[in-house]
Amino acid sequence: xxxxxxxxxxxxxxxxxxxxxxxxxxxxxxxxxxxxxxxxxxxxxxxxxxxxxxxxxxxxxxxxxxxxxxxxxxxxxxxxxxxxxxxxxxxxxxxxxxxxxxxxxxxxxxxxxxxxxxxxxxxxxxxxxxxxxxxxxxxxxxxxxxxxxxxxxxxxxxxxxxxxxxxxxxxxxxxxxxxxxxxxxxxxxxxxxxxxxxxxxxxxxxxxxxxxxxxxxxxxxxxxxxxxxxxxxxxxxxxxxxxxxxxxxxxxxxxxxxxxxxxxxxxx
Length: 268
Ligand code: PGA
Description:
By secondary structure, the chain is α/β, with parallel strands linked by helices. It has ten helices and eight strands. It has helices at 16-30, 47-54, 80-85, 121-134, 146-150, 154-165, 171-175, 195-212, 233-237, 254-266, and strands spanning 5-9, 37-41, 59-63, 88-93, 137-142, 178-181, 222-225, 244-247.
């Protein structure tokens, strides 16, 4: 039986004081919920405050990215040991907003700025392995663009991302990861993927995991992400292959996030 997970991805929202207040509200609402693993992925500068505020509750702190090297001359980067030292337990890896290939930048951004968002299949793999080696649980994201979906290549694209993310991992390491299927066209758009289609792709992902992990793929959590909200969470969470959510917009308010956690708890 896989324990449901509800992970909030706060993206570039909430300064330290706002983050502390939101974490406090979430702890007050669902901080004793044992049936769900609850994660708050906050901006780096908020992680100390969020980890402190959630300490002693069932809520954990997570980061949104990580460098694959522990220390060195890498200006602006943050490493796994640094995240662990402030009480972080999880890290999102390979979110589509960080994968350069998607080209989802605002139209008025010159091309020179695109390279700032530089993740690709190789960096995702290196980051996930570094996180695992240092004691963080990576939440590895995958998903297709709308053009890829229309071209009928969803499964090929997602399969490729998952296989690349698992490169050189042991079965045990793969088993320690969480995966998140996030169709790019559903992120932040209000357009949720139909529950049975999200379930189908999550099942396909589990099949890919099973190619690498002899018998443990049934124990690996696969989340859905992309406009998950209180009014569509039940339909998604009842799906047998969907073990939880990676949530942006609806995670920025304590009451709506608590609603999602409660919905996940019902399926535990
Ligand atoms: P959304 O974001 O819930 O706002 O669509 C999900 C995500 O980006 O992880």
